[in-house]
Write a structure and sequence with these properties.
13 helices, 12 strands, Beta-Lactamase, single chain, 4 domains
Length: 461
Amino acid sequence: MQTRLPGGGSFWLSAGFLFTVALVVGLLLIFFTLFRFLRRGTSTDEVDAPPRPSQAGETAFASASVQAVIQKLREQERELERLHRVERERAQQTERLSLAVTRNMPTGLLLVGANGLVSLANPAAETGLGCGALQYRRYTDVLGADTPIARLLTQCLREGRTFQREQVEHFTADGELRQLGVTISPIAQGAEKVSGALCLLSDLTELTALQRQIRLKESLASLGEMSAGIAHEFKNSLATVSAYAQLIQQEAGAGETGEHAAKILAETRALTHVVTEFLRFAKPMEVDREPVALGALVERVVAETREAIPSATFSTEGEYTQVPGDEGLLRQALLNLVRNAAEAAIAGGPARSPVGGSATPAHVEIRGSVEEMAGRRLQRIAIADNGSGVPEGDLQKIFLPFYTTKAEGTGLGLAVVQKIAVQHGGSAEARNLPGGGAEFILWLPAQPAPPQAVDSRATGI
């Protein structure tokens, strides 16, 4: 344990200097007094006699010696002050350099003490976590005690464990889901004691979305190759079965055999519908690259869905711009998402009914925004419902072909939405909202912003 005495280095330097000067002067005075006492005679005449010239020279010599020592000590004091000033400036320069490096790191940096307080957080960490003013706050209060990052930090502080290249999900304060790469290592003092944890953060959201798009494109290519070989044979077989069923129905009339033939016809029609949807999904799409005004398109889709499902309410808000693409395909994607949201809101009615109160009406909200991400200008369209949400185990599967949670669904609606988004250079994603319900987000590349005119007079050109 170190004890810090009051005062700075200059205080102790001055005190040492004065003490040395006093010691030297005292020694010289004692020497001079003893010298005079030994040279002094025992008679009164010698005592009262004025000092001889040799005694005056000795006094001058002693005074000059004292002055020389004082001058030497002053020079040493100035040299020590200069060295102290140089070291202080060097330490300040090193601190400024470390601060500049930390603030300009593209990787997020968190330094958490053993007491759970964040002692250092750079701007990249605040951006990645979606919250500001992290310093001097408890990490469990900022991140949440039960979040994946908080659990990793807790294990590191308690057990001294190191976590390398972990990928975790993190919800920002705005409810945005981000994929973060996390490396956490303990800061140890001594052999066993952990005094803190160092956490490095990387935002992998865009990389994860890109990997998901690549896997989806590979899946689409495989399905396209497979469907090309079986589509015609399958449809021919269905047409044959349907034709024989019609003949049986005509010959049997209204009897039991006719009812069986009618059931066969109904099943073949349903199966033909599935095959048609599958072929629509699997075959290559020809996308027209024309400017599409998304604001007007969203309003038309909402009007159509409101007429088809009058028991649900709809609202639109936000900013919409033009995107290059195929208006027919984009309409199909938006119509699937809005219709699915309305049906989910109606199906989740009992879950929205408060105990002892009236049921909340089924509602679908469509919000648009234009965002800059990784140098790209993107149109974001979010379709949110107030239903019961999507089961957590289904969130990663609902865009897969033939995967459905509906009793009469084909499992191709959302797969077609994802394919249309990918064909336009965008993506589709889904998440559950913290307050209940689900939100589907459609990302589409927007038209580049028009160049702004430059006033030559204002710029001096």
